[in-house]
Each structure stands twice: as C-alpha cells, then as structure tokens.
Automatic annotation (TrEMBL), chain A:
<dbReference type="GO" id="GO:0055085">
    <property type="term" value="P:transmembrane transport"/>
</dbReference>
<dbReference type="InterPro" id="IPR001626">
    <property type="entry name" value="ABC_TroCD"/>
</dbReference>
<feature type="transmembrane region" description="Helical">
    <location>
        <begin position="12"/>
        <end position="31"/>
    </location>
</feature>
<feature type="transmembrane region" description="Helical">
    <location>
        <begin position="221"/>
        <end position="241"/>
    </location>
</feature>
<feature type="transmembrane region" description="Helical">
    <location>
        <begin position="133"/>
        <end position="151"/>
    </location>
</feature>
<keyword id="KW-1133">Transmembrane helix</keyword>
<feature type="transmembrane region" description="Helical">
    <location>
        <begin position="62"/>
        <end position="79"/>
    </location>
</feature>
<keyword id="KW-0472">Membrane</keyword>
<feature type="compositionally biased region" description="Low complexity">
    <location>
        <begin position="292"/>
        <end position="302"/>
    </location>
</feature>
TrEMBL record, chain B:
<dbReference type="GO" id="GO:0016887">
    <property type="term" value="F:ATP hydrolysis activity"/>
</dbReference>
<dbReference type="InterPro" id="IPR003593">
    <property type="entry name" value="AAA+_ATPase"/>
</dbReference>
<dbReference type="InterPro" id="IPR050153">
    <property type="entry name" value="Metal_Ion_Import_ABC"/>
</dbReference>
<keyword id="KW-0067">ATP-binding</keyword>
<feature type="compositionally biased region" description="Basic and acidic residues">
    <location>
        <begin position="238"/>
        <end position="247"/>
    </location>
</feature>
<keyword id="KW-0813">Transport</keyword>
<dbReference type="InterPro" id="IPR027417">
    <property type="entry name" value="P-loop_NTPase"/>
</dbReference>
<keyword id="KW-0547">Nucleotide-binding</keyword>
<feature type="domain" description="ABC transporter">
    <location>
        <begin position="11"/>
        <end position="244"/>
    </location>
</feature>
Amino acid sequence: MTEMLSYDFMQRALLAAVLVGITAPAVGIYLVQRRQALMGDGMGHVAMTGVGLGFIFQTSPVWMAVLVCVLGAVTMELVRSRGNQRGDIALAMLFYGGMACGKLLVSLSAQAGAGSLESYLWGSILTVAPGDLAVIAALGAVVVAVTVGLRRQLFAICQDEDFARVTGVPVRVLNLLLAVMAAVTVTVAMRVVGLLLVSALMVVPVVAAQQLTRSFAATQAASIGLGVVVSLAGVTGSYHLNVPSGPAIVLLAIAVFAVFSVIAAPLARRRHRAGAGAGAEPGPRVCDVEIPSPTSPGTTTPERGAGLAQ
Amino acid sequence: MTDPIPLAPAVRLRDAVASRGGRPVLRGIDLTVRPGEVVALLGANGSGKSTTVKAVIGSVPLEHGTLDLFGTPYRSFRAWHRIGYVPQRTTAASGVPATVREVVSTGRLAQHRLLPFRRKDRAAVDAALDAVGMLDRAGDGVADLSGGQQQRVLIARALVGSPELLIMDEPMAGVDAASQQVLADTLRAEVDRGAAVLLVLHELGPLEPLIDRAVVLRDGCVAHDGPPVPNTGLHALPGHDHVHPHADLTPPRLLA
C-alpha cells in the first residue's frame, strides 16, 4: 500500500478517483430520478466528437469535450422538454452522430494512432497530469456545489416538473443547469473511467444505494460515499492486478449493487416487522382500502363507484 | 408583489386556444375563478379539462387568449406562493426513493426559495401532513403508499404553503373510500379558510355540496357555466361521456 502511494502518478490517480467518485453520483441521482439513467451514456458518445475536435485543432481534448458535450446536453434537454414524440429518434441521431464524428475526426488528425482515442474511451487514470487534476477538481467543485446546494430545487423539478413550475422555481433554467452539470461530469470522469463507462459511475452507485434507503437525502449521501469507495478500490485493485481502472471500478460497483439487492429484501422485511411490533404477521400495517360489500350493492353510491372505477 | 386591483379574480382565462401534439384541444375557453369560489371543471374524456388546468398553471402555452392570475398577467406573475397545485396523479414516486416528508417539503419552495429550510417550513409540512392524516407516515417512502395515500401526500404538498387558490386535477380518481372522505374534509377546511378552488372532476360526487359553480367543457369549448345541477353528476349536463349503442357515429373529435 505504501509502495503504491509513493508514486506520484498513483497519488494523482487516487485523488482523481475520489473527485469523480463524488461528482458522478451527485449528478447521476437526478438522471435516475427522472428515469433518464442512460442519458449520461449518450453524453459520453457526444463527447467523442469533442475529443476528435481537440485532436484536429491540437488543443486540449478535455476542454473541447466539455464544450461539445455541453452543447449536446443542452440539445438533449430541449428535445426532452418539448415532449416531442419522436424525441428518442432525435437523440439516437445525436448519439450515433457524435460517436461516428469523433472517430472520423481522430482518424483524420495528425495524432491518429492505435491508442490515442482508446485512452478516452476506456480512461487512462495513470496518465492524469497535475494540470488535469486541477481541472477535474475545479469542475468537480462546481458540480457538487450545484447538485448538493440546489438539492431541494433539483429534487422538485425531477420529481414533478409541473408542480415545481407552480412553486415558482425557474424550471427551464434549472433543467438546463442540470444538463450542463451532467455534461461537465461526463468529461471530468472521462479520464478516470472512460467515455464508454462514464454513465455507469453516474447510475450504478445510485441504484445500489437506493436498494437500502428510503429517502432521497440518504440515497444521495450513500451513493456519493459508494462512488468514492468503489473508485478508490477500483484504482487500487487495478494497480495490484494490472488491469484497466475504468472497468475495475464499474464491475466493482455492479458487484456492490448485486450484494445490496440481495440483502435489501430481508432488511426491508425486518424494518417492516419492527414497525408492526414484534411477532406480528408480515404484511401491510394499515388496511385502508374499503371494498364495497358485494352483498349490498345498493349502498354503493354511484359517484363512489365512478371514482373507484377510474 | 401586490394586487393591482383588490379582489381581482384568482383565475381569469379569456378566449384560450391551445393545442397538444398539433391537435387543437382548447378552442376559446373563458374561465373565471373568483376569490373564495369553488369551481368544478367537468366534461368527457378529451374535452380539454386537464389541458385547461395546465394552461392555467402555464405548463401548456396559450396560442391565443389571455391568462391573468390574481389580476396579474401570467407573464409577470411571480406570487406563486398563492397557488397550490395537485396534478392528476399517475404516481407520486420517481426513479429514486423519497419520503413523504421530502415530497411534501417541495411545496414550501415558493416560501423559502434559495434560503435554507427552516423550522417554520418544517412546522408547515407537519401541519399539512396532519391535515390529510399522513403525519405518522412522514418518514415512509412514497412508493410504499397506496394510491389514495399518495394522493393525500400530493394534496398535503399543495396545502403546505397555505395557498389562496387550490387547483386540483381529478383529485378523487382512483382514491379509496377512506381517502375520499379525508380529501372531502380537507377541502372543506380549505374552503372555510377562504381559499378559492378550481377542481377538475369526472363527476361531482362527494364534493358536490362544496361546489359553487360548474363549468362543463365539450370539445374544447365551454358548454355550461353555472350552478351545479344537484344529485345528477354529469348525466344531466351536456357533454357527458356515456357511450350508448345508438351514440352518434361520428366521434366529436373529427368534427373539428
């Protein structure tokens, strides 16, 4: 362990892993809440075009990816908010177009080589430079400040957009802000887990945590904790086993999800029993559904019948 | 923001035209809800009831016509704390678990805005949960509740800001008898407090004694605006959606 920590590149890798482990689930929870768990994946595809542009113009692929990914995310949000029935097709065009365009641009660029795009697709945490770390830290701080600081507002728009609008929350602005935060996260996490696996770190810690939680606040806290743990463990494991860090982190997260979902059922049952009192029959604590008596149909008022039939 | 005119109508929708997915749904609706008034919006499925409500809260844009809330044009209306909204319930649950308290707390956003959630906000959430008889379930996940209980949670969420106007879309739909009684009692308490209510209903049902005026929609137009017809629900009013074997063969939608 001390030997691993004595290397500068491993120190940077572990620090980057912690930052991404915090950031990705902090944003991802809102995508999961809105049942858009695969949105991060699409943004990863779009970001490939940014990486390609960075190669072509010989500028930083990370900043280009941030730019393109933010544009892509804003487009996705506009498609979503318009509720267009063919919205999924528009998104498909965007995702595949982004991926194809990225590969094409990279192959046209001077740096075209076997490993050049590869490191962005699967991550290359061991090559994180001090400058990269500063960028990751700064962007991560912004993302965490927004997603934790505006938790009540973002929770409201993802829970029930129409209701949030009636509380005077600037729904459109917050939706765009969330999309931009997700795009920034994708590009921040790109160096650690790679564009193809970015979405996993945004989604899997959240769904793993929610196997055991009942509240949103607890889910957010637990998923950030889980994100940090699996990222650190994944990087450490990849150092010792000499395997790539991105897949190690993601498989670890999925393993945690599997374990949590196995222990979730008995845990929920015990919680239920504790609430109902020791020795009580498992089952609902309160029966509040009144079934109209079939023997006396005349007592069922027509309006009540109509209400129940809805 | 204060009212330009004291006691301006809570809702004033004039000549509202709106469409959804390219299909015209509202063809010139006039709807006024005065302070303290309880108005039921009735009509067959597809008559434009829900769209009218969504136009009132601004989530369906008007192509033509005007909307004033408390005497202020919609565009400059900011006093959202005066309105409580209960959407048509599909489910109160989302992709991530949330407790009853967390969902109801979103109803205080108009009050505390970007400031932290304070003790008085918490007290308001407790009071609203108590009003619908759900205070003992505050820490439970909304996904674990029955349909009727979820509806009670959504109503508590709308009540938590003590609104002057309550807008409810089919609050009785799919609600068990016990919850229907709680909802009727809660609504009565709100009306006694002086709140105006705009209700979308399929039938007048148990809420009938509370209703001052019924507006019946048919094919996106107002077909009736006046006192509710007692003890009959929709059946005596134009536009009821009973399908009889001898019904008009042309679906009304195609007449447009």
